[in-house]
Amino acid sequence: MAKPVIITCAVTGAIHTPTMSPYLPVTPSEIAASAVGAAEAGASILHLHARDPDNGRPDGRPESFMSFLPRVKQGCDAVVNITTGGGLGMTREQRLRAASAASPEMASLNMGSINFGLFPLLDKFDEWKFDWEPGYLDNTRDFIFRNTYADIEYILKALGQEHGTRFEYECYDLGHLYNLAWAVDQGWAEPPFFIQLIFGVFGGAGAELDHLLHFHRTAERLFGDSFEWSVLAAGRHQMRFATQAAMMGGNLRVGLEDSLYIGPGAKAKSNAEQVAKIRTIVESLGLTVATPEEARNRLRLKGADRVAF
């Protein structure tokens, strides 16, 4: 029988800015409520970033995360997954501070450096809610999202080995799968590996079915039966690729970090709305949705009682 589908919800991220949607969670209360709502709708993993509550700018300070993490834990039993990608321009140490302080069950880990182009979004807006937004997006014309081999080693050892945190390995391109295989060969990571295949980000692999099939076949060759895989696709590709992943026996990720929409031209009013939609699709395919406990068991997580929040 097919395994239950693990739904990850990426609640706010560091890509979209407040001007782009009035529904983007920004304050600690908004992030906590949106995360809990997504869990109630069926998400078993919550991928979390923090933002400055005054202007919505991505914020990597541990105290910003701690302003909502206890509320999320109290409000649901979902697995909390904290970013180590942070916001554009943060140093490696800044990106790791929150996860190191919280010692979560899971954290994201980007498996290679890429161009990460957000500047095309500038053309969609004439006015901005906050002054920082257009500059933040425009800076990506001359920006490399750095994830060197030294960075990967540092994060795997500092967070994985010291805290027992396991990772959502984010792979934006084919070479990122080979980077993960190399890290495994060094003895820095142990199975099962939770591999997030990412499509549709400008600078990474395009959202084409052939790419998904090739990425999946490559992961099978590299990792055999020692991995779980999930798919996220940016923007308008979100639901189509999530559905395809479920049909192929994989897992999936939705959320306002990845897309602000629920359908063509219609903005999602909450993360829960996106989770509920993909859950309906998954169940209509005759599949079931994994509970947080099922996700913990399959990914061999340390448990919510061993985090620092």
What does this structure look like?
The protein has 309 residues and is an alpha/beta fold. The protein has helices at residues 28-41, 62-66, 69-75, 92-102, 132-138, 149-163, 174-185, 209-223, 238-247, 271-284, 292-299, and strands at residues 7-10, 45-48, 79-82, 106-110, 114-115, 144-145, 166-171, 193-199, 227-233, 251-254, 261-263, 266-267. Strand 9, helix 9 (238-247) and strand 10 form a beta-alpha-beta unit. Helix 1 packs parallel to helix 3 (69-75).
Radius of gyration: 18 Å
Range of helix content: 25-40%
Lateral strand order in the biggest sheet: 1-2-3-4-7-8-9-10
Q: β content, as a range? A: 15-25%
Query: What's the end-to-end separation, in Å?
Result: 36 Å
Largest sheet features: 8 strands, parallel, barrel
Shape: globular
Report the strand count. 12
Mean pLDDT: 97
Short description:
It contains eleven helices and twelve strands. It is α/β, with parallel strands linked by helices and 309 residues long.
